[in-house]
Amino acid sequence: MAIEVKNLSKRLGKLQVLSDLSFSVPKGRITGFLGPNGAGKTTTLRILLGLLAKDSGTIKLLGEELETGPALSLKGKIGYLPQDPVFPEQLSAWEVLALVAENYQLPLAEKRARELLAQFQLEEAAQRRVVGFSRGMKQKLGLVAALLPQPQLLLLDEPVSALDPAGRHQVLELLAALGDKTTVFLSSHILADVQRICQRVIIINKGQKLVEEELE
Q1: Which of 65, 144, 187, 214 has a 20 to 30 Å separation from 176 between CA atoms?
Q2: pLDDT per residue over 169-184, tens digit each?
Q3: Is pTM beyond 0.85 here?
Q4: pLDDT band at 10 (very low <50, low <70, confident <90, very high)
């Protein structure tokens, strides 16, 4: 399994955000993580990434059990796109990718970076400062950054929420084409998008699992 979560609980202030949440995500598949706003999807993703501490429960990512945050050995194996990616605005798109490569302790593979920028139609904006990017362009750049290290596991939080219909179609096609090389776990509330590319769905509400099934 790429992700194994058992009895995960988290309280924020007086609000019980997650309650004994358990689910698993098979390797090499695209799994949709669904629920209404406030269901606990983003909190779950942040805990998986070690950005937020869990209160109780166990988590395994790519077979490694996590206590607080992802082990260093997992750093280069996981890509992440938040719903609203934020970049240093004084940097160009190309400089952002160089920073991402440095963070993953990898040399910037210029050929791969250029290919990804072209796939997401950002090649002409590569030298422009991010401060001038639209929200949709920033979301595309976030996807490029998440895919740059060729992760085994890709965690996406509403990956097409800022895109127009043509952009959504393009990004979904690219995600579907990842095949069995990368496990994709994406949160969304756009059911048509999930139905189009996902093989499995997990549905939660008020921090509890309602459904975990093959899409059929």
Answers
A1: 65
A2: 888 888 888 867 899 9
A3: yes
A4: very high
